[in-house]
Amino acid sequence: MSDLLQVLMYIKNMFSDMIYINGIIATELTKITENLVAIRHGDDF
């Protein structure tokens, strides 16, 4: 039972890290998109 609990905690931590990294990637993609729109329209954000 202890081994199963350790595996489940490991998986939980992996999901937590993946969600955090996904948030960073989404934020950066949003910034890139905003900058590309600004460049295409000649504006400066």
How would you describe this structure in keywords?
mainly alpha
What does this protein look like?
- By secondary structure, the chain is an all-alpha fold.
- Helix content is 89%, strand content 0%.
- The chain has 1 helix and no strands.
- The longest helix is centred in the middle third of the chain and has 40 residues, at 2-41.
| Shape type | rod-shaped
The proportion of residues forming helix, as a percent range, comes to over 70%
- The SSE order reads H
Output the structural class.
Answer: mainly alpha
For the secondary structure, the number of strands is 0
H/I helix tally = 1
Low-confidence stretches: none
Largest sheet: none
Whole-number average pLDDT? Answer: 92
Report the β-strand fraction as a percent range. under 5%
Termini separation comes to: 55 Å
Rg measurement, Å: 19 Å
